[in-house]
Amino acid sequence: MSTYDLNGIGMTSQRTRDRLVQRLAKQGIENTDVLATLGSVPRHIFVDEALAHRAYEDSALPIGEGQTLSQPFVVGLMTQTLLNVPRQRVLEVGTGSGYQTAVLAGLVERVYSVERIESLQQRAAERLRALRLNNVRLHYGDGYLGWAEQAPFDAVLVTAAPREVPQALLDQLAVGGRLVVPVGESNVQELKVFDRTAEGLEVQTVEYVRFVPLLKGLRRS
Ligand code: SAH
């Protein structure tokens, strides 16, 4: 698990962050480790400076290339759903800004994250380096394929929505592992949870959400 090195990164007042955490707790984020982490990751460094003043509102924000950083409530919900039991090796598909990656890094032993848009991947890598998160490995690649070299994972979190769950992600899930993924068309998706047991896969739907689509292939920019 990492702690966040905030040297030179600038701080928004702790009061502003505490207010966000209180609000998330009221809305149903119960896991106290997840709440504490959401209160300590500097979300303002993951968006453009022009949007930094909105970073501790509970809203989704644009991160460039037509992609968005989810609202903190959704990040909290996904994270607590993923980590309902302790899990140590986590794959994230869709690094985006790197914010969700940083949240996971504070809660688990090692985070692997894949992003298909090169410019976003590079910017996320810079931010995560600035926070000195040494338990994060990033990969510029197509997350449809997961990250076979690093598999199996105790947990897989997909932060963009495929129409159907990619088979590779199910294949790379360890027994006892959990995959959290929004599945569906562009306007609304079901947040699905797959648990791999010794007998096979169990699936449930926990919520309705709205994510950008999971696309195939790489984009260089
Ligand atoms: N977790 C991110 C959310 C970013 S939005 C954050 O905290 O900022 C979803 C991201 O998924 C986008 O950056 C998008 O480019 C990426 N994405 C979409 N399809 C992908 C794929 N096949 N492989 C890897 N990343 C993908």
Would you write up a description of this structure?
With 221 residues, this protein is of the alpha/beta class. It has a single domain (14-209), classed as Vaccinia Virus protein VP39 (Rossmann fold). The protein is 27% helix and 27% strand. It has 6 helices and 9 strands; from the N terminus they run H-H-E-E-H-E-H-E-H-E-E-H-E-E-E. It has a 7-stranded mixed beta sheet. Helix 4 links the parallel strand 3 (89-93) and strand 4 (110-115). Helix 1 (14-27) runs antiparallel to helix 2. The longest helix is centred in the first third of the chain and has 14 residues, at 14-27. The radius of gyration is 16 Å and the shape is globular. S-adenosyl-L-homocysteine (SAH) binds at residues 63, 67-69, 93-94, 96-97, 99-100, 114-117, 120, 142-144, 159-160, 212, 214-216.
Write the layout of secondary structure elements.
Layout (H helix, E strand, L loop, with lengths): L13 H14 L4 H9 L20 E4 L2 E3 L2 H11 L6 E5 L5 H7 L4 E6 L2 H13 L5 E5 L12 E6 L8 H5 L1 E12 L4 E9 L2 E10 L12
Parallel strand pairs: 3-4, 3-6, 4-5, 6-7
Antiparallel strand pairs: 1-2, 7-8, 8-9
Helix pairs in contact: 1-2
The ligands bound in this entry are: S-adenosyl-L-homocysteine
Number of DSSP helical runs:
6
**SS-based class:** alpha/beta
CATH superfamily: Vaccinia Virus protein VP39
Order of helices and strands: HHEEHEHEHEEHEEE
Q: What is the CATH class designation?
A: Alpha Beta
Strand neighbour order, sheet with most strands: 5-4-3-6-7-8-9
Number of strand elements: 9
**Beta-strand content:** 25-35%
- Biggest beta sheet summary: 7 strands, mixed
Number of domains: 1
Tell me the span between the first and last alpha carbons.
32 Å
Task: Summarize the amount of helix as a percent range.
Answer: 25-40%
Please give the radius of gyration in angstroms: 16 Å
Here the CATH topology equals: Rossmann fold
Given the C-alpha coordinates, what overall shape results? Answer: globular
CATH architecture: 3-Layer(aba) Sandwich
Summed over residues and divided by their number, the pLDDT gives a mean of 95
